[in-house]
Amino acid sequence: MATIKVKQTGSPIRRTKDQRATLVGLGLNKMHKVSELEDTESVRGMIRKVQHMVEVLEG
């Protein structure tokens, strides 16, 4: 299955609890960390929710 690499570029400080939980769900919890995930609709929805704090490297 296809994969997507996502890099955290923004800090979760002063963000809502659900945005922080979404970052953790994506496997991100520190600045500049990269996580490789399966390319599914649910993952794309999570990325869309925190698009101001992440950068898609591939996909």
Description:
The protein has 59 residues and is of the alpha+beta class. It has a single domain (3-58), classed as Ribosomal Protein L30, Chain: A (2-Layer Sandwich). The chain contains two helices and three strands. It has a three-stranded antiparallel sheet with strand order 2-1-3, with no helix packed on it. It is globular and about 35 Å long. The chain starts with a strand and ends with a strand.
Q: Which short descriptors sum up this protein?
A:
single chain, alpha+beta, Ribosomal Protein L30, Chain: A, 31% helix
Detail the topology: elements first, then pairings.
Elements: E1 3-8, H1 17-25, E2 34-38, H2 41-49, E3 54-58
Antiparallel strand pairs: 1-2, 1-3
Number of contiguous helices: 2
Task: Kindly provide the radius of gyration, computed on alpha-carbon positions and rounded to a whole number of angstroms.
Answer: 10 Å
Q: Which series of helices and strands comes N to C? A: EHEHE
Query: How much of the sequence is in beta strands?
Result: 25-35%
Count every beta strand, where a strand is a DSSP E run of 2 or more residues: 3
Helix content: 25-40%
> What is the name of the CATH superfamily?
Ribosomal protein L30/L7
| CATH structural architecture | 2-Layer Sandwich
Neighbour order of strands in the largest sheet: 2-1-3
Using the coordinates above, name the CATH class.
Alpha Beta
Shape: globular
* CA(first)-CA(last) distance: 12 Å
Q: Which regions contain 5 or more consecutive residues with pLDDT less than 50?
A: none
* Biggest β-sheet strands, sense, barrel: 3 strands, antiparallel
Helix-and-strand structural type? alpha+beta
